[in-house]
Amino acid sequence: MIRIKKRWEIPESEVTPEPLYRRRREFMQAAGTIGGAMLLNPWAAAQAALQIDDYQRGVVTLDEELTEEADATSYNNFYEFGTDKEDPKRNSKRFKTDDWTIEVSGECAKPGTYDFEALMKPFPIEERIYRLRCVEAWSMVIPWLGVPLGSILAGFKPTSKAKYVAFRTLYDPVRMPGQQRSVLNWPYREGLTIAEAMHPLTIMSVGMYGKTIPNQNGAPIRLVVPWKYGFKSIKSIVGIEFTETQPQTSWNMAAPSEYGFYSNVNPEVDHPRWSQKRERRIGEIFKRDTLMFNGYAEEVAELYDDLDLTVNF
Ligand code: MTE
Predict the structure, then answer these.
(1) Distance 232 CA to ligand 1 centre (A)
(2) Rounded to two decimals, what is the model's pTM?
(3) Residue 193: which domain range?
(4) How many A from CA of 308 to the centre of ligand 1?
(5) What is the CATH number of the domain that holds 223?
(6) Residue 173 resides in a domain
(7) At 211, phi and psi to the nearest 5?
(8) Tally of domains in the chain
(9) 277 part of a folded domain
(10) CB of 195 shorter than 6 A to ligand 1
(11) pLDDT value, residue 93
């Protein structure tokens, strides 16, 4: 069988973890522009901010060692394929994502059912090296390939009533056997405020380590929100809805006292059953301190200036 390479698949030899650097000053200037403009018209401002070249070229990266690809693709949370960390890889082997479509609805001028491949076509695929940190206190550093979520959302022309964006995973208990058990209220759902959705750090990922995203990591398209706990980064998305009110999210519905809507990585707020101060980077022996906003405080803290983060956890 001939497998046609996807446009965003780069030969492995070209995926270099070096140089891993961060141009903080440029980033800060850009973030400042967004912050100020956001107050006037969030959608227009965010669109303008997305044109900033540095974001588009994906220079926002980290001077941290990458997690081994084998670990990032075999130690997963994806309850649609089982609840043990090794289940998703094993149980998603035959999951087919051909002819994938995404239904766009709610407060926007261009609702409809969009073909995934066609939807992605206009956008350059960038590499962004981000941390993903899970509530269970482990973290990884992964080279994601994706497109800023805001660039995609702007195309649907959200109305001024759209204050939030809700995401939905595929519901198909035959293809996703984990859905035959009611461990969560299926389909998996997540949501972001506009400001979060339009922030240039938020991407829709279609690949990692220079390859198409493996099934167990959320094929064919998943969210990556690097300053939030991993469960916000919803996988295998088939639905996007613009809403006026805060949407329901799976983990918040399952355990509201443990998982809030915001879920920003916050070492100062304990999970009711454990501390969130320290974490284990997969591949390392000793724990390290967890950073506020997963280390992205300079870029995103201002989004929450008006919120008490111990209440809005
Ligand atoms: N998305 C769906 N649809 N179902 C899930 O069970 N698990 C979440 C998130 N997205 C999950 C999901 C959790 S808890 C985490 S930590 C991350 O995916 C894990 O992403 P990774 O397996 O690529 O590291």
Answers:
(1) 8
(2) 0.86
(3) 9-253
(4) 26
(5) 3.90.420.10
(6) yes
(7) -130, 165
(8) 1
(9) no
(10) no
(11) 98
Q: Mutate which of 224, 231, 249, 281 to test ligand 1's pocket (most atoms within 8 Å of Cβ)? A: 231
Distance 224 CA to ligand 1 centre (A): 10
Q: What is residue 118's predicted lDDT score, i.e. its pLDDT?
A: 95
Going by alpha carbons, the residue nearest to atom 11 of ligand 1 is: 78
Provide the pLDDT for residue 200: 87
Residue with tokens 């670990």: 71
For atom 8 of ligand 1, the residue with the nearest CA is 231
Residue-level pLDDT at 52: 41
Run means of pLDDT, 10 residues per run, the chain, 313 residues: 55 40 39 47 56 44 87 98 98 97 97 96 89 96 93 94 97 98 97 94 94 97 97 98 98 96 96 94 96 91 92 91
Does the residue 312 lie in any domain?
no
The answer, yes or no, to whether any atom of ligand 1 lies below 6 A from the CB of 80, is: yes
> Rounded to the nearest whole angstrom, what is the distance from the C-alpha of residue 239 to the centroid of ligand 1?
16
Mutate to test the pocket of ligand 1, among 78, 175, 208 (most ligand atoms within 8 A of CB): 78
230 belongs to a structural domain: yes
